[in-house]
Amino acid sequence: MMNRQQDQISLETTNTQALHLHTYGKLDYKHAWDMQKDIVKQIDKGLAKDTLFLLEHPPTYTIGSQRNPEHLLLSAEQLEKQGISVYEIDRGGDITYHGPGQLVGYPMLLLEGPSLDLHGYLRNLEEMMIQYLASYGIVGDRKPDFTGVWVGNEKIAAIGVKFNKCRSRRGFVTSHGFAFNIKQGIQHTGFTGIVPCGIQQFGVTSLEDVTGLTFTVEQVGQELLPHFMNVFGYPEIIHHSIS
Amino acid sequence: MSDNGLTKEITMPQLAESLVSATLNKWLKQPGEAFEAYEPICEVFTEKVVAEIPATESGVMGMHLVHEGDVVEVGKVICTYLTGAKVDASSEAAGAGEKVVNGTGAVRVGAGQHHAASISSSTEITADKLRSVAEQVGMLYNNENAPMRARLSPAVQRLASEYDVDLKNVQGSGLGGRITRKDVLQFIELRGNVTHEALKQGADVINGGLSAVVPVEMKNSQLQYQQNEEQLAGLDQSLAADASSVSLPVRSSGLHLSESPRVPHIDVERPQTVGDGEHFINVTPIRNTIATRMRQSVSEIPHAWTMIEVDVTNLVELRNKWKDEFRRKEGVNLTYLAFVLKAVVNAIKDYPIMNSVWAVDKIIVKRDVNISLSVGTEDSVMVPVIKKADQKNIAGLAREIDDLARRTREGKLTLEDMQGGTFTFNNTGSFGSIQSYPIINYPQAAIITFESIVKRPVVINDMIGVRSMANMCLSLDHRILDGVICGRFLQRVKENLESYNSDTKLY
């Protein structure tokens, strides 16, 4: 009500179907990736509907399509010693970190029709988290050249997406998604081993750092959903809890 | 101090990054007193916040090496303590460790008893004897490093002059026999008792209440007492006069002592004697810090001052539109302050030089905009800090303001709440002011005030309308800032405030 932009965006993208939500708690990166690929195929074939995964990963580095090995600052031995897995994957973006204390969301949505706007999808992911931050009194920003959500000069949420071109119809199905830093201290664990997203000059922060409050990753997942539905225009959510 | 390896030292901890020194406010553990690990041993005072220093392990307090009211550098030893498996052993060791303190205490009590005895039981106690007691005490000091006796803190000197105490007669319990404030207070208390006794008995004598039952020695003892007192350099002569002429007011300066209170205190609300033209208020550590900071700011920073007036009619409407719903939803008052602060913070983002510090050979511009918010309490002003105010929206600022103001009133601010401010905002309008000349919160570059909102006739397009107007006043460090930049900055604040309308988002 207080937020006009919110209303405008929900008018732009309106879905008549429900969003299927899968929450996993902690899930291995490879496992989650395989399941994503499977659901993307099913959506392509019309066997599944728009789906959102919410989960946490064990410590993992993923390297996107802009492969810059120099942005990984740790050697193979150091990585093994710290129990961190590394995956080279098929999303956009550079290297990032996933780990405990971070909410990871993988929306697999069918984007089609005349108003198909791939960059608009990225902006909507940002908008959802910006609105969520605003509800806690925090101003989340975009940086023109860097996808993601920023608070001041620090990144609070990373976004990396793959648009999978449909085989059985026109349009795209999205995979990968966003990683939202929740717990304080996450910047000191995983992000010190890399240059996040290849951006040298800016640091990383977390929801707990910027608000001074305490959160659980599950709680943020729950609180984020209304904003996700609002921005992407889903009338309802069908929750499949799998953890 | 004992060298059996059980004696350890406690140093002034680095309570915060920028801390270089702190004032020891109060000892919570006295020499010889046992404490558990994590139990607070003393209170220190810094940046207008009182913090307790906990013990790192259990032990027994040894010597206090600094006095209440002293400013202590970080890392300096503040006290010794004894640690050991057995309490008995450690308390014994404590006795050895602070021989001076305990020894002095015993002698002092002894001396007090002698005083009392000389009055009540006509024991022949001459000034010589009293002197010899004093000498014994003196010897104790002489055995240790007596030179410390001569080092008197300002608090001690002030107290001594207020109560006309000759410090030569006060036994010091501090390091090396140094005289502490407490020693002086104890001395005064002791003297007060004696005086009281003397007064009472003197009155009996004069009123003729003395019957034959009262032995004549009593009178003699009075005289003896007076003589002793006269001979004793320490107690002022008025005491002797007291004993003989009871009805006369006693004091000539400072606190009125006609009642000989056991614990000296100053009643601020009601002057103790009708006709007194003045009374005294103790300068609290907070008051002292404010005074120091203000003087430092005014003497170091060349202040300049400027003011703008802002049309806040739309802001008044906007706030009225949301205040009830906000109160219901957030449980927090949506004050004008949040809107004004947002306008100021956004202007600082456009003119970052406002957010800086003069460092002689350079100007340090701070990246984060941390707003020090002046919050008045009954007897002081606190400036808790809204950290990273540039990252908060209006709702977020409203919550922070509410939280800080509430905790200030409840006295629950932490050291961290007070630190890191880069620019100060003072809502002087809340006391009805329409114009003020604030002093910069040292070492910041500027301070801004928001004055009362008043309805005034204003000329708009050559017509007169009634608008809600408010002044904003800015004091600036003229070493860093000039009229041009501050004029632009204030103009931006004005634009930001006047561009609020009913569509402005709170979130």
Automatic annotation (TrEMBL), chain B:
Chain ranges of the Peripheral subunit-binding (PSBD) domain: 151-188
PROSITE patterns per the UniProt record, alphabetical: BIOTINYL_LIPOYL (PS50968), PSBD (PS51826)
CDD domains (alphabetical): lipoyl_domain (cd06849)
Cofactors demanded by this protein: (R)-lipoate
GO terms under cellular component: cytoplasm
Keyword entries, A-Z: Acyltransferase, Lipoyl, Transferase
Class of enzymatic activity (EC top level): transferase
Entry-linked PANTHER family: DIHYDROLIPOAMIDE ACETYLTRANSFERASE COMPONENT OF PYRUVATE DEHYDROGENASE COMPLEX, LIPOAMIDE ACYLTRANSFERASE COMPONENT OF BRANCHED-CHAIN ALPHA-KETO ACID DEHYDROGENASE COMPLEX, MITOCHONDRIAL
Family under the similarity heading: Belongs to the 2-oxoacid dehydrogenase family.
Name by which UniProt lists this protein: Dihydrolipoamide acetyltransferase component of pyruvate dehydrogenase complex
Organism: Paenibacillus agilis
